[in-house]
Amino acid sequence: MGDISQLSKEDLKTKLEHLQETYTSYQAKNLSLDMSRGKPCSEQVDLSKPMLNLVTSEDELKTPNGMDVGNYGGIDGIQEAKVLFSKIFEVEPKQVIIGGNSSLTLMHDSIARAMLFGVNGEKPWSQQEKIKFICPTPGYDRHFSLCEWFGIEMITVNLIEGGPDMDEVEKLVQSDESIKGIWCVPKYSNPTGQVYSDEVVDRLAQMETKATDFRIFWDNAYAIHHFSDHPNQLKNIDQACHEAGHGNRVLQFASTSKVTFPGAGLSAIASSPENIESIKSQISFQTIGPDKINQLRHVRFFEKEGSLEEHMKKHADIIRPKFEKVFERLELHLHGKEIATWLKPEGGYFISFNTLEGCAKKVVSLAKEAGVILTGAGATYPYGNDPFDQNIRIAPTYPSLEELHVAIDVLCICVEIVSIEKLLA
Amino acid sequence: MGDISQLSKEDLKTKLEHLQETYTSYQAKNLSLDMSRGKPCSEQVDLSKPMLNLVTSEDELKTPNGMDVGNYGGIDGIQEAKVLFSKIFEVEPKQVIIGGNSSLTLMHDSIARAMLFGVNGEKPWSQQEKIKFICPTPGYDRHFSLCEWFGIEMITVNLIEGGPDMDEVEKLVQSDESIKGIWCVPKYSNPTGQVYSDEVVDRLAQMETKATDFRIFWDNAYAIHHFSDHPNQLKNIDQACHEAGHGNRVLQFASTSKVTFPGAGLSAIASSPENIESIKSQISFQTIGPDKINQLRHVRFFEKEGSLEEHMKKHADIIRPKFEKVFERLELHLHGKEIATWLKPEGGYFISFNTLEGCAKKVVSLAKEAGVILTGAGATYPYGNDPFDQNIRIAPTYPSLEELHVAIDVLCICVEIVSIEKLLA
Q1: Which of B275, B225, B281 lies closest to B254, judged by CA?
Q2: B305 neighbors B259 (Cβ within 8 angstroms)
Q3: Are A116 and B53 inside 8 Å of each other by CB?
Q4: Chain A residues within 8 A of B287 when measuring between CB atoms
Q5: Going from the N-terminus, what domains does chain B have, and what CATH number goes with each?
Q6: Does residue A1 or residue B199 have the better pLDDT?
Q7: Contact between chains at B291 and A100 (C-beta distance less than 8 A)
Q8: Rounded to 5 degrees, what are φ and ψ at B158?
Q9: Shortest CB distance from B57 goes to which of A50, A61, A145?
């Protein structure tokens, strides 16, 4: 079947009736399918369970370097965990601090410190008249809610092929001193799956910013989350910043939440040696140190697995078919109908799906009434405000293949119904 | 031997020479003994190692209530962990939030939130002209450095028998709107070991404060850390505040850092249901939730141990002899000489030791030169400033009995030397 907009009103009405019948039959099934969050499925979580046997009561609680992990101390984590993350961040281990189980906490706390104590010797952000962040969109809802929470004004910039629209970004940061940061999910971006190009990385590193306390919040959450064996390469932002003479500009974040245990993994922050020293002295008021036993568990686990990469292939084997299932159902139901577009990421956790303008909220709501939960429409935009009401984030990792099959079929029916209603209106 | 101050100058000089010879002989031993921090010894840490076998790859990662601990979620912790801490705090489980591995983080973050977002609907503390905290002294150095870090002015109030001098506290909080908090270590206070009396608890709960955004920071770090089977009872501050019509006044903190693993335990905060709801909504921007696998480990462990109390008896059996060793050596060397006093706590981690006025810094420094590290003199006072330069905190838990024997002998010699030098000056 082809372009729906070419159909006569009569044909559209007939089609709508059929769709509504099918929709009603799905409603009768009392489905309860959740595709709202980027949540690993239980098979993925199970991959890391052997880790739980790697630090036991038989062990001496010591790292290979001889550090006691049972007692206090080690504010920045054990050396071996820093080495592990230094590979993800492509920096020196001394540029890494290991945190607790959540990289969101490291991002939140970085902003909180900037608010209270300032950045780069400048006035605390909370004492400056206005603080603004650039938010490439569509983007990650938790970044946006952090900004909202801290009273940071969000300026949207389009995420285009290869990263944010850099002409726009450069114009903004060069002219507005109140712009203090930009959120970036540079690899398999949430939700579009895009990977920042070398040119974008270079321009982010090199651009002149009016604010001397400007920071790039580089949330590399999916750094190693590829579907294929020939992953996309992301240019090293730390090195690019260093070479551009802006060595302190970037704060990188990552975690093993989608590598080991979503609630019990490790998080880390990386930056210039100078920034890291400063953060260490600041967090010494906040903690005696992170959970080193869990770090040792992780270090031993990846040793046993061979490498992080080997472990991530197991994840890819579980979730690749889920993404393919989504593409298969979308193709089957929506191909050529000119009522939706979607991107095919090569890694990460999401599929970015666009309806006709003004349809996303209705689609999400209709799907919900049939028991299929999607991320709220608008969530991928600051203040929950998608100006065209068309972006929907699909998170296919958590449901089973069978559930996904049904969930996407329901989604497609909802998209068709809402689109036809729009055309008929 | 009796009161040293009664000796003639000649006798003092002879005695000093002998002491200096002994001191030199200790120096020759190249000792390296650390009594600076309240750090559990390895035998204590080992008590909890069986916990590491209680969540393994064979397990379903589920709580008794059916919650999945392997995945995201549960911002306030698993129900069973809340029940565990509710017993320590003597509150309802719904009044508890489980944190990461460090109660210091919960205290730090509580202040950070007050700074940025305010308390009780009042202006954020960072936007008020001046913020002050009452600091009963001697007290815990990390509380004081937190205040210094956040720019909070510290007002010292004497810690007397049964708690802070409440006449003074009441006078202060009734008259000064900028006083927003008081630090309390109500049981086996750090470092004096005192337990707050019922009267002090009631007066803290009932007192009128000029600031409507006043909070008691109730760091109940040693709530269950008794030496005897007939522990001191601490009146329930949460209930007392509730009954006094100040239900939101108190924030309680505790952790298992000195119960299970100092670096890998659980921390928790307790307060009124209203405060807890507010904190939960605030931290939802900061984390998806704490490490629930570690919580499950802890819950299973205490089930197996019988109870928290049973487990703590094992700790007491290890550290009680260490405290007794310190008292024995102090008695032997210093009894009746009228150059030092010390308290005999019935729980906790410290012994508060007072020299003659103006001697503490010299004693700590002299001991250090003989390889015995004590907490820095002055650390038990805000800004590191002990007005009488006489308080020394002894932390006897980490060294072995043999090491303690030597360390306290060295301490006593240093005290005698510095005291005689003072008398001769």
Answers
A1: B225
A2: no
A3: no
A4: 101-102, 104-105, 108
A5: 4-44+310-424 (3.90.1150.10), 58-307 (3.40.640.10)
A6: B199
A7: yes
A8: -65, 135
A9: A50
- CB contact (8 A) between residue B286 and residue A257: no
Alpha-carbon distance of A291 to B130, in angstroms, equals 35
Looking at residue A163, its pLDDT comes to: 97
B73 touches A: beta carbon within 8 Å: yes
| Residues of chain B above pLDDT 70, percent | 100
How confident is the model over B365-422, as pLDDT tens digits? Answer: 999 999 999 999 999 999 999 999 999 999 999 999 999 999 999 999 999 999 999 9
Structure tokens at B404: 């303690």
- Do B386 and B306 form a contact (C-beta atoms < 8 A)? no
Whether A123 has its CB under 8 Å from any CB of chain B: the answer is no
Mean pLDDT, rounded, for A200-206: 98
pLDDT at residue A251, as a whole number: 98
CB contact under 8 A, A112 and B112: yes
> And the tokens for B76?
């306030």
Q: Would you state the pLDDT for residue B401?
A: 96
Sort out which chain B residues have CB atoms less than 8 A from A101's CB and list them. 100, 287, 290-291
pLDDT at B5: 84
Q: pLDDT per residue over B315-347, tens digit each? A: 999 999 999 999 999 999 999 999 999 999 999
Tell me the ipTM for this assembly: 0.96
CA distance A285 to chain B (A): 6
Q: Judge contact between A186 and A252, C-beta under 8 A.
A: no
Q: Looking at beta carbons, which residues of chain B come within 8 Å of A112?
A: 112, 116
CA distance A314 to A305: 10
- Residue A308's pLDDT is 93
pLDDT in tens, A63-118: 999 999 999 999 999 999 999 999 999 999 999 999 999 999 999 999 999 999 99
From the CA of B55, how many Å to the nearest CA of chain A?
Answer: 7
Query: Which A residues in the span 81-120 are in contact with B, Cβ-Cβ below 8 Å?
Result: 100-102, 104-105, 108-109, 112, 115-116
DSSP element (H, E) containing A184:
strand A179-184
For residue B257, the chain A residues in CB contact (below 8 A) are 72, 288
Confidence check: pLDDT of A325 > 70? yes
> What's the whole-number average pLDDT of chain B?
96
Contact at 8 Å (CB) between B64 and B80?
yes
Residue A229: the pLDDT is 84
